[in-house]
Design goal:
Arc Repressor Mutant, subunit A, Multidrug-efflux Transporter 1 Regulator Bmrr, Chain A, alpha+beta, transcription, 9 strands
């Protein structure tokens, strides 16, 4: 079964259990995937997190029941995972712009999040510039934080981590430390068990890690190195989406499951002509699924 089909199976599993508590580990297992890579792939292809999808779909079905049945509001709230009417009303208002009692009275328009069907584009209208690179292991040094991928903790925490690195001079120190083959400051993602991930802001170097920095060995790998042209963050996000929706389905590789890198230049990354890179560890495709 291909990885697109595996992702759809996970979506179908979510849909079948919207009125039950389900964990991200159960969902990722439907796609034969680690939690980290499932959440990352889902977010790249759908522009929303797994949690946002579940929340949006549950509140969509809750609204439908409010206007089409006589079920008590508290019963609907409990059915879709809200312990109190207050928590349900707050979430309902955030999505639909009205209270559940107003929806029952048909006093406004509701917002519907429809069931997802994954369709991968193989258009390839705009050629992607990439190269395959084989490298022995190499060392990076920098700062590290652990994030939970549950409740979008990584999506909130990583931008804050970058802001701090820019504000306190970490970014500049890393550029001065950088003496390796990869020129630039790296964002390094490492998936872990239990819905956790490590994120590094680092640089490739042959030097000892200076005070305040930690060192890590990036394992030997075959890499797909993808060019990213344009201002951050949109150019990087668009490149990731094209890699997942166009490049992986039409090439004989899959994720190797080791750290992945984003490479940022020393010049202003928000300029229209900014150049960055994405480094993805690859292995030959055996059976196509998410890693």
């Amino acid at each position: 079964m291909g990885w697109v089909e595996s992702l759809q199976e996970a979506i179908d599993f979510m849909e079948a259990h919207l009125d039950e508590p389900i964990g991200i580990d159960e969902i990722a297992a439907q796609a034969n995937s680690s939690v980290f890579h499932f959440q990352r792939t889902f977010a790249i292809l759908t522009d929303m997190s797994v949690g946002e999808y579940l929340r949006g779909r549950r509140l969509t079905l809750a609204a439908h029941e409010l206007v089409s049945t006589d079920s008590k509001i508290i019963d609907i709230a409990l059915k879709y995972g809200y312990d109190t009417p207050e928590a349900f009303a707050k979430a309902f208002r955030r999505q639909h712009g009205m209270a559940p009692t107003d929806a029952r009275k048909y006093l406004g328009s509701l917002k519907s999040y429809n069931r997802l069907v994954i369709q991968v584009s193989l258009k390839g209208a705009e050629p992607m510039k990439y190269k395959i690179v084989e490298r022995a292991g190499f060392k990076v040094a920098g700062v590290k934080q652990e994030f939970s991928t549950e409740d979008d903790g990584n999506l909130k925490g990583i931008p804050a981590m970058w802001q701090k690195a820019l504000a306190d001079g970490t970014d500049e120190r890393l550029f001065r430390l950088n003496d390796g083959q990869i020129e630039g400051v790296l964002g390094v993602c490492i998936g872990k068990e239990g819905g956790l991930m490590d994120y590094w802001i680092a640089a490739e170097t042959g030097q000892e890690a200076p005070e305040g920095f930690k060192a890590m060995e990036i394992p030997a790998s075959k890499w797909g190195v993808f060019e990213v042209h344009g201002p951050m963050p949109d150019a990087m996000q668009d490149a990731w989406k094209k890699i997942f929706s166009e490049w992986f389905p039409s090439n004989p590789y899959e994720y190797a499951g080791t750290p992945e890198l984003e490479v940022y230049p020393q010049e202003d990354a928000y300029q229209p002509d900014s150049y960055s890179e994405i480094w993805i560890p690859l292995k030959a495709k055996q059976k196509s699924h998410l890693q």
